[in-house]
Amino acid sequence: QVQLVESGGGLVQVGGSLRLSCAASESIFRFNTIAWYRQAPGKQREWVAEVTRLGWTTYADSVKRRFTISRDDAKNTVYLQMANLKPEDTAVYYCESGAVWGQGTQVTVSS
């Protein structure tokens, strides 16, 4: 079954860190780019970062130098390491690949 499952969200203070995980079924992980998106209350979903199957990474300007996306081929998992978190990073974070979406994980940054 084609599947993406996010985890690792939570409540963190401004300036703190969190690591999100996206576990993918092998059929997705092996062949596709995997991306993280986020959606804040009342706002449109926005692209955050992505990693290709060859490991190339790109980031939205708003998270560049604070977030790091990586992949573990042995675990079919993509990570989003988030540092120096800001209140505007509060959102539900989703991973996506090949038009398949996970269920999302909530990140709340308190000031």
What ranges have pLDDT less than 50 throughout 5 or more consecutive residues? none
Percent of residues in beta strands: over 45%
> How helical, in percent, are the residues?
under 10%
Reading the helices and strands in chain order gives EEEHEEEEEEEE
Question: Quick one: how many beta strands?
Answer: 11
The average pLDDT is 94
Structural class call reads mainly beta
Determine the N-to-C terminus distance.
40 Å
Q: Determine Rg (CA atoms, Å).
A: 13 Å
Number of helices: 1
Descriptors:
globular, 4% helix, 111 residues, seven-stranded mixed β-sheet, four-stranded antiparallel β-sheet, mainly beta, 1 helix
Please explain how this structure is put together.
There is one protein chain. The chain is mainly beta and 111 residues long. The chain is 4% helix and 51% strand. The protein has one helix and eleven strands. The strands form two sheets. Strands 2, 4, 5, 6, 9, 10 and 11 form a seven-stranded mixed beta sheet that branches. The longest helix has 4 residues.
Lay out the secondary structure:
Layout: E1 4-7, E2 10-13, E3 18-24, H1 26-29, E4 34-39, E5 46-51, E6 57-59, E7 67-72, E8 77-82, E9 91-97, E10 100-101, E11 105-110
Parallel strand pairs: 2-11
Antiparallel strand pairs: 1-3, 3-8, 4-5, 4-9, 5-6, 7-8, 9-10, 9-11
